[in-house]
Specification:
Blueprint: E1 2-7, H1 11-27, E2 33-38, H2 41-51, E3 56-60, H3 68-77, E4 83-88, H4 94-99, E5 104-107, H5 112-128, E6 132-136, E7 142-146, E8 150-156, E9 159-164, E10 168-171, H6 176-186, E11 191-192, E12 198-201, E13 205-208, E14 212-215, E15 220-222, H7 228-239
Parallel strand pairs: 1-2, 1-3, 3-4, 4-5
Antiparallel strand pairs: 6-7, 8-9, 8-12, 9-10, 11-12, 13-14, 14-15
Length: 247
């Protein structure tokens, strides 16, 4: 059973989203969900930490106090594998939304087909499952990590340091080029090599400036100034892949 949460401070908007979700679940044979509804961001945050989180969250962007971006930041700080759908009257926050790896950004007032598309993508991501990557650590220890959980990999001397959302590992056998080839075969286009000695997960980038990539965990990776435009294009193409902004 899916665990879904909705947070919108406007009662009428919350009812519309709730109704659309009921219709979606009714139309989806075999799909059941436990739905939590919040008209207050503080209550959402309280339950986020006490309940263990949700599979899918549907967030209004503009709310008093903590807005939808603040809630998404809190979700990502927990390293939850949660699919986020933003719903807003304005497209102003769309780019920032996808920096949080949102699955969709829907503009109000929306039609049911728009909502259904967003939910289809969220459910599809959940059904995709994990992408296992085998790491060979010291003393012959084998460690499996999910490719989506890898933030970046750096080569330090003869070591490959794998930074994930929850831990750091030292790969002792594979070269950086071999690791990149394995990741490219597993999930084409998701990982890039922006600078010598690095592999970066496009899904784990917070932003790209003229001289560095800033990761979602706050780490940064220097880039050549002349590479900024190319890397920015790769980041946005990946972030918006198959996601048509609804206007």
């Amino acid at each position: 059973m899916l665990r879904i949460a909705i947070c919108d401070d406007q009662d009428e908007s919350l009812r519309l989203i709730d109704r659309a979700l009921d219709d979606y679940l009714a139309d989806s044979q075999g799909l059941a969900a436990d739905v939590s509804r919040y008209g207050n961001p503080d209550a959402f945050i309280s339950d986020l930490h006490s309940s263990g989180g949700w599979d899918i969250v549907i967030l209004d962007v503009c709310m008093p106090g903590m807005n939808g971006m603040d809630l998404a930041r809190e979700i990502r700080s927990r390293h939850d594998r949660t699919e986020i759908i933003f719903i807003s009257f304005s497209s102003d926050y769309a780019v920032e939304a996808f920096a949080f790896n949102a699955v969709h950004y829907v503009l109000k007032p929306f039609e049911y087909k728009d909502f259904r598309e967003a939910m289809d993508r969220a459910v599809g991501q959940l059904e995709k499952g994990s992408l296992p990557v085998m790491l060979q650590l010291e003393n012959g220890i084998m460690q499996i990590v999910d490719a989506d959980d890898i933030l970046y990999i750096e080569s330090v001397g003869y070591r490959r340091i794998v930074h994930t959302r929850s831990a750091v590992y030292e790969e002792t056998k594979k070269s950086l080029s071999r690791m990149f080839a394995e990741l490219e075969e597993l999930t084409p286009g998701q990982f890039i090599q922006p600078y010598r000695g690095y592999i970066v997960n496009l899904d784990a980038i917070r932003t790209i400036s003229s001289d560095k990539i800033i990761m979602q965990n706050g780490d940064f990776i220097l880039i050549k100034r002349g590479d900024f435009r190319h890397l920015k294009d790769l980041f946005f193409k990946w972030s918006f892949r198959g996601r048509n902004l609804i206007v």
